[in-house]
Structure formats: C-alpha cells, structure tokens
Amino acid sequence: MKRIRGVMLSTSQIFPFPTPVTDCVEAHRVCSTDPQCEALYRGLELCAADAALSQLGEKVASECLERQDALLAKHPSLLACKCQRGFRKEERCLRIYWRVRLLPGREELEISPYDDSLIDSRMASLVSATSYMQLDGENQCLKAAQDCGLYEKCGALRSEYVLACTKPIPNTSRCNQYKCHRALRRFLERVPEEYSLGVLFCPCTNTLCGERRRKTIVPSCSYQDAETLQPNCLHQQSFCRRDDLCRSRLADFLSNCQPSHLTASGCLKDSTGLCLRAYAGLIGTIMTPNYISNSSADVSLWCNCEGSGNQWQECLKLQRLFTHNSCLRNSISWMGSPGSLPSEPTQPPGPRPSPLVQKDELLNSNRLPELNNDVVESEEEEELTQTVEEEEGDEGGQFDVIPLYSERATVSNLGSSGTGGAASLSASPTKPAAAPRVIPKGKWS
Q: pLDDT tens across 54-81, in order?
C-alpha cells in the first residue's frame, strides 16, 4: 500500500491495469501441487467420463457436484480461468475448463471460455482497416485469395484444406468431413486474420464474387451433405455440446454475437470484431455455418427444425441466431464497407509481397491467371472457374504446386506489420499501383 497525503491507495488504484486472466492449464498446474485438490479433480474427470456414456443418476450426480464444490472452494482460480483460441494447449485447457463445470446450466453454456481481453482491440483495428477497401467493381474475394497466395503460410494451409475437403474416401464418392474440418480449423487458427478473415468475409457486389465467397470453405464437404437430409438443429447442437472444442466455440459465438438494439454495432458487447472471430471459430465443427447464396451475405446452419416437437421455438431461436441476427449481419457487412464504421479507423501500412513471388519475369505483369485444378466439385463451379479465367486471362501455369510453408515465414519477416499484410484489408485511400501477385494452381485460389 502507498500513502499519498494521508490517503491509503491500493496497488490497483496506483496501477489501474486489468488483472491478467489465469490460463486454465496454469490453474490446474497449481492445483496438481496439492494432493487433495488433484484427487478432487481426478474424481471430477471420472464423473465426466460416466456422464459422457449416460445420464448420471441422482445420487451419483449429487456426489459429483459436492466434489466440484469442494474443489472450487479450495482453488477458486479454476472457476475464473480462461483459454486462448488456437494455442497449442487449447484442447487441454478447454477440457479443464469444462471439468469444473460438470453439469453446466444454460447460462454457463452461453459464457465464452476464451480470454478476449487482448483480442478485442486487435480485432477492432482489423475491421476498421477494411474500411479502406475500394468497392470499385473488382472481385474482392479473388483479390483476397491472391493476397493469401502471396503469403506462403496462408497459401500452403489453404491448399491443404482444399485438398482435404475435395479428396474422396477410397472406393467412395464422399469426402472425409473429419479431415476437412480439422484442416479448416488449422487454416483459421494458424493464418493471420488479415488473410483468413479477408477470404471469409470479402465484400461482394456481384454474384461471381459471391459464388467464390460461398465456396471458400468447400461447402460440399464442410457444410452440407448432399446424400442425406438436413439434420435437426437441436440435434446438431446436442452433439456439439458433447465435444469440449465444439461446445466452447458455440458458447463463444452465443456470447460475442448476442444482438442488442442498444448499441451502434447491434452487438450486446458492441464489438463486431469479436463476433466475426467467434463466427469463424465455428467453421470446422459440426455447427459450421456458411453463406446461403451467391447474391447476399446471409448465412445459416445446415439444419432445420423439423421434428422439434414442443422445442420448436427453441429450435427457431437457434436458427435465427444465424439468419436474423443484427449483430452478425452488421459485423459481416462492416467488413470492408467504407464509411459504415462508427469510429474513425487508423490507416494501416501498405503490404509488401512475399519474397517467394518476386520473380524477375513477373515484375512487369499485373494480371494473374486463374489456373485449373484436377478436382472439380460441380458443373456450376466449372462455369465459375471458366468465367474467372476469362476475366483474368491465361498467362501460363508455371506455379503448379505451393511448397510446404516455412515456419520462418511470418508476417513480421515478410516486411508487413501486425495490422496489415493483405492488400484487400490495408489498401490506402489513394489506391497504389498493384503489386504483382501469383497464386497456386487451383480453382479455389
């Protein structure tokens, strides 16, 4: 404590910084040093394993909840801890987070387990930066894909998920949705958001751009199953909540995309950036959403409410969180809509291309070919690819394969700052001359 003119000031008054949030892995490490705490935690893990197989009986559930209360009374940091999305120990952290919430109530299922205290300002800057994009008729989704190709890690991981989502299971015509979802999550977690969100939420003014945006996540595998009927939305949600990762991503979405009429953004937390990140976090789970057409930015889950019985209203409420959500709609619309943001954005620095694409023979070329790919999803997509090729012209195909990215290839060592790197998200108000771009061979570029 410090005394100033007879007034005792606490440390928090002298240094008014927010208290850092404890990571659940660290909170459990502290718990594990206490044998009694560790025994209580192990008991909760056994309860969770039993609950995963069947509903706990009244007596067993009561004993498990008593054990949970004793644990949290001894180590309350386990209840206050949070996790970081995309970190190496994310799944372990989430397992700890949910173990001390053995039988979560409805409210707990709508509280995000992620720590967004440091992400909020970064996401706000990213969304603000997109207000400099010029919607002059150029296909912004094609441009965003080309910018992704300039950054080696983005291009490599994008090619990885496209291959995973289009490669059929041996002796079948179906894709491996599990591998597809895993590769999509890897792309969204490891690629800087300047690129990944630019590809997902690129603004469109025509159906050609809209179709490219709709097919960004290879929806024929990741989103829908053409061979089966749409599942019930509540059944999907039930399956999701049996998995720690999916349950966490859904809770994050319900928390950060909650609509409100009292804020300028239409979001209860008044942060369109957090909502976009939470929406993107659902991609690669059983609750993967996507654009429903190439003529609008409307999104939906691949499910319906048939067979909901007396839970019809609850099912509709879940559906409408995607189809009639003012927070989500505004967040997607503001991504790249000049002048629509409620605050003045800070102009990001201009991007610099990856050294991998600074080829002497391409320095004078500003047009890029839309190259072919051996895997064709549908006739409709073939027509789309042909149309894009006609727009861009065919200048050969010397870059057939993207090499595996180097871990050293990061935004910083490519000469770009942390707030920019994709041309589509950081173009200055006076539009500079376009730098040469090259993208990997494939229709999904």
A: 888 888 889 999 999 999 998 999 999 9
